[in-house]
Amino acid sequence: MTDRGLRRLAAGTLLAAFQGTTAPEWVLRELGAGLGGVTLFGFNVADATQVSELTSTLKAAGDPVISLDEEGGDVTRLAYHVGSPYPGNAALGAVDDVELTRKVYRAIGSELAACGINLDMAPDADVNTADDNPVIGTRSFGNDPHLVARHTVAAVEGLQSVNVAACVKHFPGHGATRVDSHLSVPVVDVGLDVLRERELVPFRAAIAAGAKSIMTAHVAVPVLTGPTPATLSAEALTTLLRQELGYDGVVVSDALDMHAITKSVGLAGGAAQSLIAGADLLCLGPVPSYEDVLQVIEHVAATVPAARLEEAVARVDALRSWFTAGSGAAGEQNLVGLDAARRAVRLSGATRPLVDPLVIEVDTPPTIAVGDVPWGLKLPQAETVRIKPAEADAEALLGRAAQRSLVVVVKDAHRYAESRALVSRLLSARPDATVIEMGLPIWRPDSAAYIATYGAARANAQAAVELLTA
Fold first, then answer.
1. Known catalytic residue: 132?
2. Which of 58, 201, 224, 440 reaches 20 to 30 Å from 391, CA-CA?
3. Claim: this prediction has a pTM higher than 0.70
4. Which segments of 70-164 are extended strands (E)?
5. What digits encode the pLDDT tens for the residues 71-102?
6. What is the pLDDT of residues 204-260, one digit of tens each?
7. Is 254 annotated as catalytic?
8. According to the lineage, what is the superkingdom (predicted)?
9. Which one of 254, 257, 280, 412 is the catalytic residue?
10. Between the CA of residue 311 and those of 168, 297, 362, what are the distances in Å?
């Protein structure tokens, strides 16, 4: 095979990224030369019209897979600047109505299809068994493998019913981790029996449901992969996923610019190792430059066997054929997101009529996966302040709230001791306050009315406001 042929095959396994709301010339040129596709991020999005124009330009240059992470809830790209109109998986799992989950994901898929997106990096099929998981949390349907499995299937069916490919993640499971793989390599130190009975249950169900793609996890499972992340492990991607589970769809890597990869084997080395292990399409992530992309193409072409590249590109081409063979019929975009958020929200205790309310939002640092998506409460006719717990003056806040209704908003308070301490101090003086938890409702104070939204999307916030003001 010629060097040019190898280069085209190598490029065909990559999903590149770029900054800005228009496509750079190098992206269009590389698409014409066989680049597999692109992954869009929040910084690529202004509004739906702009995204549609962008994807049209990309498709005119080649035949790209165009992907992004649209999970609903906290992880959104289309609504990155305003917050998602759909609750995420934790809320859907709390409701536990698979038809509702199917409708929500069909609506999400309809919006993506209307914008020219053909691959959604969703749903998250992780079984979130670690309460303090720093990267999954509300992105998971829950901690029960069979609940997660049935909702994963519903999500896959919802997306793919409107011809948007699902990408079920993060194989073989990121839910039992306490380390963010954006920063280092998490370890899931369990036996294969536990892995099969817990982590793999949703993936097995998704495969049976016809999921078009599965995303790898940068997690090490010592009994399976040794110290190597699953993304780079033939034991995980070939022996387990391909052979034992029988999956023959497209295997997509998680972003290779994450530290679990770049701080161990490097971007180009990780790309080659992931392909050799059994991945077909490599998400490079938002960090790599054009020069990095060129280096990856060169390294992959030089080190990955041609037969492996041909197999990977053939699977991606089969996915493209599925894109074009579908009807493209879009589902109705309606208020299903708000309906789902309303059904998920939970109230413990009793709220009181609001009097000149003061809303204190306890600031929570964004995770890398979520990004700086806006969250919080938009309570009409209320004064709202956002406070970093380490800098908060509880006495001054209590003075400010004197003779007024007090609402305290937190996000994953169970993960932040300073947040819990501040809330506890406020409630010791104001047991009549209402606490709204917009993350996982793991920790709650002994006193005060308590509202759990199971997520911080715009729809979750609106549902909480409606409950608070009812």
1. no
2. 440
3. yes
4. 119-120
5. 999 999 999 999 999 999 999 999 999 999 99
6. 999 999 999 999 999 999 999 999 999 999 999 999 999 999 999 999 999 999 888
7. yes
8. Bacteria
9. 254
10. 21, 17, 50
